[in-house]
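Input structure tokens:
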């Protein structure tokens, strides 16, 4: 697979300093039941990387000693980690808000019986990938049959109260099909609610539009199709300084499946770790107090233009 990493490490992107850390985003592994074209993690059914119970307990230890308000679980399909439910339930016992970045189809995978009920019982916020409200576009990105399974999964979640009960938020995620910026989030959310409501009587809270990152699988596609430089020029030309104030790396720490610490999920995929005073990558066990990181510089690269282009992009949608 062609790799964009060497092209992204050197950049003139403006410096960013970290604010107060209140979100811990944890990648529980690269194993996934899908292999999506836009995936910047290169996740899929053949990946074997999964966070160990030892590192899951290190995550819980950091939650106990820090003032982390939100645990944001991602992958791969985070639910495929055998310690997923253990981590969720223990974090909720600590009063931490938990987000599950769910691909929806995982609800019907063997071994995931009762997953939807578990998430509802724990009061977990679901951020669910549905990259378009049109079946043809979804299946072009994610594979045949994914759209119908996703709609079926949302119906299951709606029956449990997701998207209806204020305590059970269900947010959907849109990604562009190719090398372009997402359309305005608010207008597209109206389109989603109109189309999905009319066709399927589906309910959800918000739509998050997220820019595709030129990393891993999507980066390789850009290189293979000769679109990499054109896409990067689009991101740079669409840079908005206004977005620098609210980029997610200012209040988030990213943890990989081995327990190492990064400024964000994208830096994690580019192997740009948060460094200790000894210039070695830091393990989560060495982060004694996240507050001490406030004011420290964030490692940046060319990919950071993806978060600051146009309306901006983060794990919570437009900035």
């Amino acid at each position: 697979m062609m790799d964009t990493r060497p092209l992204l490490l050197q950049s003139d992107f403006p410096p960013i300093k970290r604010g107060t850390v209140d979100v811990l985003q944890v990648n529980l592994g690269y194993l996934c039941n899908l292999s999506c074209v836009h995936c910047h993690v290169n996740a899929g059914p053949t990946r074997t990387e999964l966070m160990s119970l030892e590192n899951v307990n290190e995550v819980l230890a950091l939650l106990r000693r820090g003032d982390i308000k939100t645990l944001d679980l991602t992958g791969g399909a985070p639910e495929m980690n055998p310690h997923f439910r253990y981590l969720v339930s223990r974090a909720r016992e600590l009063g931490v808000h938990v987000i599950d970045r769910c691909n929806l189809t995982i609800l019907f995978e063997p071994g995931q019986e009762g997953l939807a009920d578990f998430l509802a019982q724990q009061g977990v916020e679901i951020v669910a990938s549905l990259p378009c409200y049109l079946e043809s576009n979804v299946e072009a990105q994610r594979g045949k049959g994914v759209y119908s399974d996703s709609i079926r999964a949302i119906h299951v979640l709606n029956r449990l109260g997701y998207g209806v009960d204020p305590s059970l938020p269900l947010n959907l995620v849109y990604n562009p099909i190719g090398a372009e910026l997402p359309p305005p989030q608010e207008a597209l959310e109206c389109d989603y609610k109109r189309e999905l409501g009319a066709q399927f009587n589906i309910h959800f809270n918000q739509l998050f539009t997220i820019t595709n990152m030129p990393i891993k699988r999507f980066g390789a596609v850009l290189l293979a199709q000769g679109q990499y430089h054109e896409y990067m020029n689009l991101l740079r030309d669409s840079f908005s300084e206004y977005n620098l104030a609210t980029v997610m790396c200012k209040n988030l720490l990213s943890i990989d499946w081995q327990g190492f610490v990064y400024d964000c999920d994208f830096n994690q995929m580019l192997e740009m770790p948060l460094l200790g005073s000894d210039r070695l990558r830091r393990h989560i066990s060495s982060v004694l107090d996240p507050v001490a990181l406030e004011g420290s510089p964030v490692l940046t690269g060319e990919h950071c233009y993806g978060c600051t282009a146009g309306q901006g992009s983060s794990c919570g949608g437009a900035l």
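The mean pLDDT is 93. The longest strand covers residues 97-102.
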